[in-house]
Structure formats: structure tokens, C-alpha cells
Amino acid sequence: MGLRDLLYGAYGRRLEASLDPSSLPRHVAIILDGNRRWAKAFGATSAQGHRAGADKVLEFLGWCDDVGVEVVTLYLLSTDNLNRPAEELAQLIAIIEDTVSRVAATGRWRVHPVGALDLLPEATATHLAEIGRETAANDGYLVNVAIGYGGRREIADAVRSLLTEHAAKGTSIEQLAEVLDVDHIAAHLYTRGQPDPDLVIRTSGEQRLSGFLLWQSAHSEFHFCEVLWPDFRRVDFLRALRSYAQRERRYGS
């Protein structure tokens, strides 16, 4: 271990010790951005960049465990990503499947796929659904894996599910329109029953949501980090938590 690692380790311990547990987020959502740029900087392939990013996931989940986060949502594959070249997409999906399997194999967390699984290859969708069922009784915190996810698609799916439910009950459109409120739609989201994210982190320096949790992030705090995802360190995570803890949450006011 070099001097730089020792210094960062000491800095990280000091940062963590300064955090008030009562001021930490319950739900952390993160956009894992920068894998391809990381690969390009090292003269590597996109697949190698995605694998490097995948290796960071378990490490990140351990950090969340250490500070008592209750829900983590990982943005692994957007609906826009499904338009990538076929060969790259196949490699990416295989890496994501392997990553989710590794998370599940630890036996530490409940893994919950969120997204339009019907847009994914059938074998992938089946595998993700099985992992969700197999880990549902685990004692650890909840890990949402957003795969084939798009915020607009989620809201459309929620409305479609809501309409289908009420149609089965014989409710007319006019009757539904009279009582419809935000709670009705929230009850049909992919993350229904979960707390909304308190903190949304995006790596790589980009400052946009890219369709991530559009409904749920209405009152979230945001932290944009310049570091590319494969280089994201524990100290970067702790800085995000410190930034969150220092804010006065206003919930839209």
C-alpha cells in the first residue's frame, strides 16, 4: 500500500467518524456512469470498461452496508442503452447478469429487479426474476437493480397497471378520474412500497438524470461526482454522504 492510499484511508476514516448516523440517507440511488470513457482512457474495450464497473458494485454495496443504508438502487441499464450495437449490448447484458448473480450469491441482500423486463432477452428476464424470488427472504437491505429501466416507461407502465386494475373492478374512466391522485400512481411503480431516494449520486461529471427515477426523485438531493465509475472510491462515497448531511432538505418548498 502506497503513501497515497494510506492518506486516503486516514481521510476516509476521519470523514466517516464525522458523519452523524441520524443525518444519513435511508435510500441511496446511483447512476453508474463513465465505464466506456474509463476504458477509452486506458485503451481498453467497452466490455473491459463495463467489467471494471461491475467489479466496483459489490464494493459499493459493502460501503452502503457499513453506514446503514436501507435501500440502494443501481442504474445498470437504461431503455436507451438497448439501442446500442448488438454485439456491445449482448456483452453488456451478460456482464450485468453476472454482476447481479454475484450480488445475490453473497446472501447478504434482497435483490429486486426494476425495469421493463419484457424488453430484455427472455432468458435474462427469467434469470432476474428468479434472483428476485430467491433473495426475497434475505435479511440484508434492499438492492434495486434498474435494468431495461426508463423513468417515462415506468410511469406509463404504472398508469397502464392502474387502469387495468380498475377496469377489472368495473370502475369507469369517469369514476377513476374523480378520485385519482399521486398515491394511486405511486402504488403501481416498480418501487412501490419503498421509500423514495433521499440521495441520488451520478459519477463521471455529467449533471443530468437520464430518465432515472423521474417520479421518485422529486424531492431527492443530488450529488454529481467527477470521478468515472470504475475509479469511484469509498472516500468519494463518504464525501457524497457528507454533502447530503450538510443540506437542509426542503421537500420542494
UniProtKB/TrEMBL annotation:
<comment type="similarity">
    <text>Belongs to the UPP synthase family. Z-FPP synthase subfamily.</text>
</comment>
<comment type="subunit">
    <text>Homodimer.</text>
</comment>
<dbReference type="GO" id="GO:0016094">
    <property type="term" value="P:polyprenol biosynthetic process"/>
</dbReference>
<feature type="active site" description="Proton acceptor">
    <location>
        <position position="81"/>
    </location>
</feature>
<feature type="binding site">
    <location>
        <position position="50"/>
    </location>
    <ligand>
        <name>substrate</name>
    </ligand>
</feature>
<dbReference type="InterPro" id="IPR018520">
    <property type="entry name" value="UPP_synth-like_CS"/>
</dbReference>
<dbReference type="Pfam" id="PF01255">
    <property type="entry name" value="Prenyltransf"/>
</dbReference>
<feature type="binding site">
    <location>
        <position position="221"/>
    </location>
    <ligand>
        <name>Mg(2+)</name>
    </ligand>
</feature>
<dbReference type="GO" id="GO:0033850">
    <property type="term" value="F:Z-farnesyl diphosphate synthase activity"/>
</dbReference>
<feature type="binding site">
    <location>
        <begin position="78"/>
        <end position="80"/>
    </location>
    <ligand>
        <name>substrate</name>
    </ligand>
</feature>
<dbReference type="GO" id="GO:0005886">
    <property type="term" value="C:plasma membrane"/>
</dbReference>
<feature type="binding site">
    <location>
        <begin position="34"/>
        <end position="37"/>
    </location>
    <ligand>
        <name>substrate</name>
    </ligand>
</feature>
<dbReference type="GO" id="GO:0045547">
    <property type="term" value="F:ditrans,polycis-polyprenyl diphosphate synthase [(2E,6E)-farnesyl diphosphate specific] activity"/>
</dbReference>
<feature type="active site">
    <location>
        <position position="33"/>
    </location>
</feature>
<keyword id="KW-0808">Transferase</keyword>
<dbReference type="InterPro" id="IPR001441">
    <property type="entry name" value="UPP_synth-like"/>
</dbReference>
<feature type="binding site">
    <location>
        <position position="33"/>
    </location>
    <ligand>
        <name>Mg(2+)</name>
    </ligand>
</feature>
<dbReference type="InterPro" id="IPR036424">
    <property type="entry name" value="UPP_synth-like_sf"/>
</dbReference>
<feature type="binding site">
    <location>
        <begin position="208"/>
        <end position="210"/>
    </location>
    <ligand>
        <name>substrate</name>
    </ligand>
</feature>
<keyword id="KW-0460">Magnesium</keyword>
<dbReference type="GO" id="GO:0000287">
    <property type="term" value="F:magnesium ion binding"/>
</dbReference>
<feature type="binding site">
    <location>
        <position position="84"/>
    </location>
    <ligand>
        <name>substrate</name>
    </ligand>
</feature>
<keyword id="KW-0479">Metal-binding</keyword>
<feature type="binding site">
    <location>
        <position position="38"/>
    </location>
    <ligand>
        <name>substrate</name>
    </ligand>
</feature>
<feature type="binding site">
    <location>
        <position position="202"/>
    </location>
    <ligand>
        <name>substrate</name>
    </ligand>
</feature>
<protein>
    <recommendedName>
        <fullName>Isoprenyl transferase</fullName>
        <ecNumber>2.5.1.-</ecNumber>
    </recommendedName>
</protein>
<comment type="function">
    <text>Catalyzes the condensation of isopentenyl diphosphate (IPP) with allylic pyrophosphates generating different type of terpenoids.</text>
</comment>
